[in-house]
Write a structure and sequence with these properties.
Beta-lactamase, 2 domains, Lipocalin, alpha+beta, seven-stranded antiparallel sheet, about 475 residues
């Protein structure tokens, strides 16, 4: 059974209330709506460890760790996790600091800054160059959405090698017109990494650690992929879907700006509160208020200069999730209020428990970040359900190693879904004839598409991930 350790707790009642009252993302009308505890949810999903920090009224209200970090270490608030793609909004601050210093501009061709490697591609023209703003907002038309990392101790490629396709991913290139459409690109953030290195003459970790992390007080954080001993001894291992530790312990990510940050939820809370404080009028922050305000202007794809942007009750929320080998994380916070939630976990199976924890915290503090929906199940005849069965291949690549193919079947007269990185099928509940939701997933809805003669040809998930039916 998993256990928990606790530190930095200032609100004694909140953790106890929250950790025993997790709910599914959706409530199905007419079905039981029982609560589950964090520990039981972790055990159910083979998640070894999880850590939480809650920002309330401009300070860390409480932080707590659950489960284990490795064979000898329990998770506590000092345990380091790989932030994965949460690295991006923090890394963006390094580039924006150089913009403030006049060393970079947001809206000029980035090739004028790059040394030894240039942005290239079939869709690149003089009239439509790639800019830093494009890179920060995932509108550059660049390839390579994500990175699989390298087993700890492996020889790591240089930044140029990664960009040139000499690592374990393809060449980063422009294959879509810059500025036309939003498309997530870790490759784009590796270009940012190269720009920072070329402008400063330092490695990205040297510059970002000293100019961004330390000034914000993030002393338990680093972009170095070889951890200093004082941090390494507090670092969590990475675990697979079955809760088994990976043989490499964890992977290294030389793509530092895209995926390489090591940190804790409490340290990420310092980043969040620093941004909130500057917006509120703090004058001695790492960036000017005007720069931070620009971060939270929504571009295509609901993206700012680093974080994702959304609105709830006319309040702006910024956030990001993150997925590295064996690590699953998420944070969301209000721009103009001192409220926020950070959850980090050390397993490939962490997404579900993370989301339930964030929903429970939001409800307890009446943040309104998440609105739980009640679903009336639509009656779809069995013969119609069978039309949706088959295998579907994702066409909007998310960095998964190999083809991302999902399996959809009818089991016990119910439509069931299984992703390639999951062991079990999950039920899809119909809310319309061709529209379904998965109650234990944040990626909804599942909308099936038919051709002119009525044959099912694909699915769109969460309004942006597209799948083509292949069998």
């Amino acid at each position: 059974m998993l256990t928990f350790t606790c530190a930095a707790q200032t609100n004694a009642d909140a953790p106890k209330n929250i950790e025993n009252n997790l709910k599914n993302i959706f409530k199905i009308v007419g079905e039981p709506d029982a609560s589950i505890s964090i520990i039981d949810s972790m055990n159910k999903t083979n998640l070894p460890g999880l850590s939480v920090a809650v920002i309330h009224k401009g300070k860390i209200d409480w932080a707590k760790g659950y489960g284990i970090a490795n064979a000898t270490l329990k998770v506590n608030t000092d345990t380091l996790f790989q932030a994965a793609s949460i690295s991006k909004p923090v890394a963006a601050l390094a580039a924006l600091k150089l913009v403030e210093q006049g060393k970079l501009k947001l809206d000029v061709d980035v090739n004028q800054y790059l040394k030894g490697w240039k942005v290239e591609g079939s869709q690149l023209t003089k009239e439509n160059p790639v800019t830093l703003r494009h890179l920060l907002t995932h509108n550059a038309g660049l390839s390579v959405p994500g990175f699989p990392g390298y087993a700890t101790g492996s020889k790591l490629p240089s930044t140029i090698d990664i960009l040139s396709g000499k690592g374990n991913t393809h060449k980063v290139e422009v294959n879509q017109l810059p500025g036309k459409n939003w498309r997530y690109s870790g490759g784009g953030y590796t270009v940012i990494q190269k720009i920072v290195e070329d402008i400063t003459g330092l490695s990205f970790s040297e510059y970002a650690d000293n100019q961004i992390l330390k000034p914000m007080g993030m002393t338990s954080s680093t972009f170095k992929h070889v951890l200093p001993m004082m941090l390494k001894q507090r670092a969590s291992a990475a675990y697979d879907q079955n809760g088994q530790m990976y043989p490499a312990i964890y992977n290294d990510y030389p793509e530092k700006a895209a995926a390489g940050l090591w940190t804790t939820p409490s340290d990420l809370a310092l980043y969040v509160m620093h941004m909130q404080s500057i917006i509120a009028g703090k004058t001695d922050g790492i960036l000017k208020k005007s720069t931070v305000e620009s971060i939270f202007i929504k571009h295509q794809g609901d993206w700012g200069l680093g974080p994702s942007i959304r609105q709830v009750n006319n309040q702006i929320i910024f956030g990001h999730d993150g997925k590295n080998l064996g690590f699953t994380n998420d944070f969301n916070a209000f721009v103009n209020e001192g409220e926020g939630i950070i959850v980090m976990s050390n397993g490939d199976s962490g997404s579900l428990t993370n989301m339930k924890v964030m929903m429970a915290i939001s409800k307890y503090y009446e943040m309104g970040m998440y609105k739980r929906k009640s679903i009336d199940v639509f009656n779809v005849p069995l013969d119609k359900l069978k039309e949706f069965t088959g295998k579907y291949k994702m066409s909007t690549n998310i960095g998964y190693s190999g083809d991302y193919i999902v399996d959809i079947r009818v089991i016990d007269e119910k439509l069931q879904f299984k992703a390639p990185d999951e062991e079990k099928f999950s039920r899809l509940y119909p809310v319309e004839e061709a529209k379904f939701i998965e109650v234990e997933s944040k990626f909804n809805p599942y909308v099936f598409h038919k051709d002119d003669v009525g044959r099912v040809i694909g699915i769109t998930v969460a309004d942006k991930f597209k799948f083509e039916k292949i069998s």
